[in-house]
Amino acid sequence: MNIKNLISKLTLGPSIRKGLGVGIFLILGSTSLMAQGDDPFGEVDSAPFQNSMSVTGYVRLGGEVLGPEAVVAAYMGSELRGKSSPQSSEGAYANMMSLLIYGDKRGEPIHFKVFTGGRVIEVDQGVTYVVDQRLGTLRQPYYIDLPSPVVTTFFEEGWATTCLPYNAEIPDGVTVWIVIGIEDGELVLEEVTGNILPKNTPVLLEYKSDNSQSSPITCEWLSRVADGDVDTSGSILQGTTEPTEVTSNSVLTLDYSKETNELGFWLYSDTTIPANSAYISDFPADSQGAKLPIENTTSGIKEIENSKLSISKWFDLLGRSIETTNLRKGIYVINGKKTIIK
Asked: Percent of the chain beyond pLDDT 90?
């Protein structure tokens, strides 16, 4: 007979049974807290509050239940109101979490932050605070569902696109651009500022490499419960958070030109646009696409020792053909890509 059934069969008054139930919950909760490792949330200060509510259930990331290594924190605004971890991964209630959330004011919105794998993922599931509420039970557990991180892989020159299903903080080293037009076969870009990229917002990204990140260059986007502050009005980019069917050669996507090997937005010959990417559908009917104005950036410039060059024809920045013998130090163009000669 488990503890829950034992309590239900005791011939005690309701107030005593309730007290025992709370005691059992606190025992489970304290076990969770002892199982936690280091996390960025700090300690919960319950002293200012006379009341609490409880959450019993599981936390899932991409549909998979997390175990004791995860730390779950409940926030009201910027205040930490509760913290716990799932139980041991063994037993009848493996990976179940018992979380107390402290407060006195009914109706305050609650959002969750989960520390797992060295990162914090946030989610707002529309929960509001209610004194003595039990959100989930052993038999009918409550689920905190975290969206999976989105990973963006950049082209060698340091450019990529994205369109996210949730608000996310812009990673360090990433500059956000929008495309506002096409002129003379070249994209017209505008840099946008902010810290939180709103969901369903297609953008062009530039990674300013410090030469410390190995190839390929990637960045990870994590869900954040915060208002998006990046304004993309005027952009001609469209985006998708799920694989999207299109007619072949009907949109432009970020890729290399088959003719010049220049990076830009060119006709997309496939019929399925990958999830979490941006594209252009409004462009001149006779256009094959447009290149990126990467002459104005340092992204993607390769450094090559002069002694390692073979004899072949290259071009300078004015488009003049040159020979690679006895080259001076400077920037040259090979197959549409800028290269630094040291």
From this structure: 65
Q: Where does residue 47 rank: exposed (0-12), middle (13-18), buried (19+ CB within 10 A)?
A: exposed
- Tokens 């462009």 found at: 283
Contact 101, 110 (CB under 8 A): yes
**pLDDT confidence band for 132 (50 / 70 / 90):** very high
Q: Is pLDDT of 336 > 70?
A: no
Inter-residue contact 254 to 161 (CB < 8 Å):
yes
Residue 322 has pLDDT above 70, yes or no: no
CB 59 within 8 A of CB 125: no
Burial 219-257 (b: 16+ CB within 10 A, else e): bebbbbbeebebebeebbbbbbbeebebeeeebbbbebb
Q: Are 151 and 195 in contact (CB under 8 A)?
A: no
- pLDDT by residue (tens digit) across 173-207? 999 999 999 999 999 999 999 999 999 999 999 99
CA angle 335/339/342 to nearest 5° reads 145
Peptide bond into 86 cis (omega under 30): no
Residue range 309-329: average pLDDT? 58
- 332 band by pLDDT with thresholds 50, 70 and 90: low
Structure tokens at 223: 């869900």
